[in-house]
Amino acid sequence: MSSKSKGLNAERDLVHKFWSKGWAGVRIAGSGSMRYPSADILATNKLRKLAIECKTTKKVGKYIEKEDIQQLREFAEMFNAEPYLAVKFNRKEWLFLTIEDLEETDKNFMINTEKAEIKGILFEELIK
Amino acid sequence: MSSKSKGLNAERDLVHKFWSKGWAGVRIAGSGSMRYPSADILATNKLRKLAIECKTTKKVGKYIEKEDIQQLREFAEMFNAEPYLAVKFNRKEWLFLTIEDLEETDKNFMINTEKAEIKGILFEELIK
After folding, report:
1. Quick one: how many helices (H) and strands (E) in chain B?
2. CA-based nearest residue to A54, from A123, A6, A7
């Protein structure tokens, strides 16, 4: 399976998880290709809304373009949602991080497994 | 161009229109294939949120499955959005209808060009 379809399947799994817990979740189409602020997933339990940018990787660290984070921030603001980055390292669970949890470099934001495990929260913590 | 890609292009045009007017709009992925409540487009200007199911047709009337309308209703409720049906007849502008504007038959909801033009509102009226 390509890493792209693996990422897509992981996003769909996450959407299913939201519904299984009484939340509504949708994947946003073409979030990577449109030039507008966007996120990969928007979810709500009526009280809270979450805008989530998803990243999967086989490596121990993941760089995220500043543009992606800026789009997430703007999208979340428009929809009055909490912005989160969801990162899934190989064979691990999704970990959810706030933008503040990410390390900002000159050109990118960065997260590695170690920091993700310290700062990130699991799905069950995210929705409680 | 297939009617499917024509419909998709028309939806993308609608998303562009929202952004051009200071609204945020996104297309929802796989809204027809997931078994959860959904809509085709979600848009907001921060004050209002709209959940829109889009239908394009070359015919003078369009049947909409009750399931589609039920999904739209539930989705809109979860996201605290106003549910709308957007219908685009051949070479016409999008017209926006509330669920109450539709004619309910035994098996479906139905809208024809005549009723859509009487009851529907144009994009500019929708967002004002």
Report:
1. 4, 8
2. A7
CA-to-CA separations, B23 to A66, A100, A117, B85, in angstroms, rounded: 23, 27, 37, 18
How far, in Å, are B51, B60, B104, B111 from residue B99 at the CA level?
12, 19, 9, 10
Q: What percentage of chain A reaches a pLDDT higher than 90?
A: 87
**Letter for the amino acid at A120?**
G
> Where in chain A are the domains?
3-126
B34–A15 CB contact, under 8 Å: yes
**Per CATH, which fold does B3-126 belong to?**
Trna Endonuclease; Chain: A, domain 1 (3.40.1350)
CB contact under 8 A, B24 and A80: no
Confidence category of residue B3, pLDDT binned at 50, 70, 90: confident
Closest CA in chain B for residue A80: B46
Least confident stretch, A61-65, B7-11, B27-31: B27-31
pTM, two decimals, is: 0.93
Pairing of strands A49-57, A41-44: antiparallel
The answer to ipTM > 0.85 is: yes
